[in-house]
Amino acid sequence: MATMRELKGRINSVHSSQKITGAMKMISSARLRKAENKLLQAEPYRRKLWEIYAHIEKSGCEFQSPLTVKRQVKKVAIVIFASDDGLCGAFNINLYKKLVEEVQAYQKRGIREITVFPVGKKILAEVKRIKGIRLARHPEAFEKKDYMAATRELADELMEDFLKGKYDQVGVVYAHYKSMGVQIVRLRSFLPVIVEPEEKIETTDRLGTWYIYEPGCEQILTMLYPLMMHALMYDLLMENKTSEQAARILAMQMANDNAVKLLGKLQLEYNKLRQQGITSELLDIAGGSNRES
């Protein structure tokens, strides 16, 4: 059984840990609001790009960009976004599991050329353990936290390699931010360009088919697709960053709750020992007075 001194030391230690987790929760809350604001600020630009695309598609333009061509899949690239810092619960583990699941699915289909772009210090060591893949370096701008430039550079590199035939398909593993308590790990198809059902924008303008495009829909789409991919890559990264902060807040809240429960148990045990010591001393005093009388 632990002594009162040992219990006091443990209580002080848990108190210190509780202060740390509380401070980290407050920091993550501020970062979460900042990340949510960045997501909201990027939304109008991305939505406008998708709206322009929807108008051109509705006009009946027959141009097919090389970025939209579906080929027989033999070579695959997967970008995985994770965190640079720990203490965010099972956030990185869930992303890693999704990556392993997708890699194994490709390998079962006979696809052996799989390249992985790990973005995030906490995922790098885990990805190195996956057999049958090739690791690729991400742009250095990620280390400088210049996410706009970094995602643009990464998207350009992937589009260039896709056009050269280095990859037949490109996907991104990330955590979709649905709400504070729900983050869904997904694989989002990046190349060839596919507009997901939830991203489709219905144009309500009845005159959409009467638009005259200058210099022409082919030139506009050639310029539009890279902009759409830049916006998409940035959006996926910021969703992942927001999910990371939400996961860290929940992890710190759980740690704080566990600390409260542990403090209650330790304090109860400490009080029992203290009461036993007081009772023992009273009995000694009573026994001594009886002997004197």
Automatic annotation (TrEMBL):
Subcellular location: Cell inner membrane; Membrane
SUPFAM superfamilies membership: ATP synthase (F1-ATPase), gamma subunit (SSF52943)
InterPro entries assigned: ATP_synth_F1_ATPase_gsu (IPR035968), ATP_synth_F1_gsu (IPR000131)
Keywords, sorted A to Z: ATP synthesis, Cell inner membrane, Cell membrane, CF(1), Hydrogen ion transport, Ion transport, Membrane, Transport
Gene Ontology biological-process entries: proton motive force-driven plasma membrane ATP synthesis
Superkingdom to which the source organism belongs: Bacteria
GO terms of molecular function: ATP binding; proton-transporting ATP synthase activity, rotational mechanism
Membrane topology classification: Peripheral membrane protein
Gene3D superfamilies named in the record: 3.40.1380.10, ATP synthase, gamma subunit, helix hairpin domain (1.10.287.80)
UniProt cross-references to Pfam families, sorted A to Z: ATP-synt
GO cellular component terms, A-Z: plasma membrane; proton-transporting ATP synthase complex
Entry-linked HAMAP family: ATP_synth_gamma_bact
Function: Produces ATP from ADP in the presence of a proton gradient across the membrane. The gamma chain is believed to be important in regulating ATPase activity and the flow of protons through the CF(0) complex.
Record family assignment: Belongs to the ATPase gamma chain family.
Subunit structure: F-type ATPases have 2 components, CF(1) - the catalytic core - and CF(0) - the membrane proton channel. CF(1) has five subunits: alpha(3), beta(3), gamma(1), delta(1), epsilon(1). CF(0) has three main subunits: a, b and c.
Designated name of the protein: ATP synthase gamma chain
Native species: Odoribacter splanchnicus (strain ATCC 29572 / DSM 20712 / CIP 104287 / JCM 15291 / NCTC 10825 / 1651/6)
Gene that specifies this protein: atpG
